[in-house]
Amino acid sequence: MMSTIKNIVLIASTLTVTSGCSSLGLGVEPWERDLLAKKEMLLNASPVDSALDDHIYFSKEASSGGKGFGGGGCGCN
Amino acid sequence: MKNITEKPNIKAVLTIAAATLLGTNSLAHAESNTFETEPDEWKFDTAILYYSEADRVSAGEAIFNAQKTFDTEEILNLKLTIDTLTGASANGAVAQPTVQTFTRPSGNGQYQIAPAETPLDDTFRDTRVQLNAQWTQPIAPDYTASGGLHLSKEYDYLSLGINGNIAVDFDRKNSTFSAGFSYFKDTFSPEGGLPQAFSSMLIGDSNADSWDDDFSATRIGSEDDKTTVDILLGFTQVINRRMLMQFNYSYSTVDGYLTDPFKVLSVVNNNGEAQDYIYESRPDSRVKQSVFAQSLYHFDTTVLDVSYRYMWDDWKIKSHTIDSRFRIPLGDSFGKESYLQPHFRFYQQSAADFYQPFLIDNESIPAFASADYRIGEMTAYTVGLKYGMLVNNGHELSFRIEYYSQRPTDAGFDEIGVLKSVDLYPSVDAVIAQVTYSF
Asked: Which domains are seen in chain B, by residue range?
C-alpha cells in the first residue's frame, strides 16, 4: 500500500512538473504542426498492428497494457 | 483500369452496408462515389496475420476495422477480430529421461511424451470471435470523451467489457491529460471442468468403468469467472515541432479464477524422477501497475518511435519492455510513397513468487504453485520489418514479418538428479507474418 501511495505521489509530481511545460518553452504554435500532423507521428500510428501484437504478447508473457488498457478479453492467458 | 473502377465499389458496398446497419445518413456519399474527398466518410482497415511457433502453436488472425469520422468530429469505430489456434502448448510438467503419459484436459484419452522432450499437450484448438465498438466525441471545447464495448467469445470462454475515457487539451493543444477506466467480466468453462488445486492428474485406463467417476473426483466445477478493472492516467506533451512524448500510469486489479486449469506441476523424487503430476493453483487476485513512456521524433525524413514500460505486481513479477520502430521513407522508387520500418522489441520479466519448475516429493506443498513458464523468469526479443506503400486511389498496402524468441531462464532453482540432463527452460521461437490493406 505504501509503495502504491509513493508511486501515485511520484506520478502526481511528474504531472505537476510537466504541466508547467508551457512555461518551459515546450510546445508549438498551430502553424508549426506540419510534421506533427503526419500520420506516422501519431502515438498509435498502426492500431491494427498494435491490436495484433497486444494479443500475442498478452497470451505469451506475464505483462499487458501500459500503452492502453491491459484488461481481460480472451482465454489465451 | 478495371481495378480502379472496382475497388471503390467494394468500399461503396461496405459503406452502404454499414450505413444501413447503423441507420446513418451517409448513403448518398457512398452512392455518389465522391467519398474519397468527403470528410464524412468511412475508412476501413483489414489485416490478416499468421503466427507460427516451431513445433508448438499456430494461429491465424483476421481484423476488419471500420471507422467513420462525422462532420461534427464524432468518431465511430467498429472492429471485428476472428482468430483460430491449433497446436501444442506446454502443460507445465518437466522433461524426463523416460517416456511420460498424461491425461488430456477433457479426461478423454491420454498422450505420451518421448524421453527428453518438453511435455506439450497437442489438443489445443480454438476459434475466437471478438467485437469492439468505440464512440469518441468532443463534449466541450478542449474536452473529448470516449466510450466502448467489448465482446469476445471462444468455445470455452466469454469476455464482456466496457471502457470510458476523458481527455483534456490545454496550452494550445500541446498538452493533453487523459483518464480512463475499463471493466471486464470473463467466464471460463474449460472442457473437462476445473481441476481441484493440487489434485493428482488421473492416469490409467480411460475406458474403465470407474474412470468417469474417478476423473470427476478431481474436478471442482464446470465454470468460474474473473473481473478486471483497469485505470489509466496519461499525459501527452508536444516538445517541439519534431518531438512528442507520452507518459502513462496504469493500475489493474483482477479478481476471480486466475489459475490455468490445463497446467500441472511434476512432483519429483530426490533423483528428479516424476512420481506424480498435480494441477497448479494461483492466488484469486492480482494487482498490476505499470508506468509507460513513449517518444516520437521526426528527423528530416525518418521517424523514430521508442517506448519503455515498467510493470510490477503483487505476484512479485517485474518486467521491462523496450519497443522501437524506425520509419524510413523510400520515396516513389519502390512503390508510391513506400517506406521500410524496422522493429525491435526487448522484454524481460522476473518470476512470480509462487512459480517453480517442479515440486519435490515429501516436501510440504506451498499455498500456491505454478510451473507455467509464462510467469517464470524470461527474456524475449522481437525483430521485424514492415514494408508499406500506396496503391490504387491512395489505398495503403503493407507487409510485416517478425521473429519472436522467448528465452525462459533459471531463477535459481536447484536441478536435481535426472533433471540435470534435460532442458527445463526450452526456448520458444515464432514467426509472425501480416498483410494489411487500408481503404
From this structure: 1-38 (no CATH), 42-87+125-185+227-250+285-438 (2.40.160.10)
Chain B neighbors of A46, CB-CB under 8 A? 436
In the stretch 363-382 of chain B, residues with CB closer than 8 A to chain A read 374-375, 378, 380
Residue B349 CA to residue B322 CA, distance in Å, equals: 12
Instruction: Give tens-digit pLDDT for B376-408.
Output: 999 999 999 999 999 988 899 999 999 999 999
Q: From start to end of A3-77, where are the E strands?
A: none
Is the model's pLDDT at B15 over the cut of 80? no
Of all residues in chain A, the one with the smallest CA distance to B379 is A61
What is the distance in angstroms between the Cα of B127 and the nearest Cα belonging to chain A? 11
Q: Quickly count: other Cβ atoms within 10 Å of residue B116's Cβ.
A: 12
User: Would you list the DSSP string of B191-243?
Assistant: TT-EEPTTPBPP-S-TTSTTHHHHHHTTEEES-EEEEEEEEEEEEEEEEETTE
Look at residue B180 and give its three-state secondary structure: strand
- B67 contacts chain A (CB < 8 A): no
Closest Cβ–Cβ partner in B157, B236, B249 for A74: B157
B127 close to A (CB below 8 A): no
Q: What is the pLDDT of residue B151?
A: 96
Report, as an integer, the average pLDDT of B408-423: 95
What are B201-225's pLDDT values in tens digits? 999 888 889 999 999 999 999 999 9
**Helices and strands in chain B, H and E counts:** 3, 23
Q: Which of A23-27, B74-78, B354-358 shows the lowest mean pLDDT across its residues?
A: A23-27
Contacts of B342 by beta carbon, 8 Å cutoff, 6+ apart: B325, B326, B328, B383, B384, B385
Burial zone of B384 (CB within 10 Å; 0-12 exposed, 13-18 middle, 19+ buried): buried
The reported pLDDT for the residue numbered B44 is 97
Secondary structure (3-state) at A11: helix
> For B182, what's the count of Cα atoms within 13 Å in the CB-facing half-sphere?
28
Asked if the model's pLDDT at residue B10 lies above 80, the reply is no
Provide, as residue numbers in chain B, all residues whose Cβ is less than 8 Å from the Cβ of A19. 170, 175, 177, 235
Q: pLDDT at residue A54 above 60?
A: yes
Set of chain A residues whose Cβ sits within 8 Å of the Cβ of B63? 48, 51-52
CB B215 within 8 A of CB B107: yes
Please state, in angstroms and rounded to a whole number, the distance separating the CA atoms of residues B414 and B357: 10
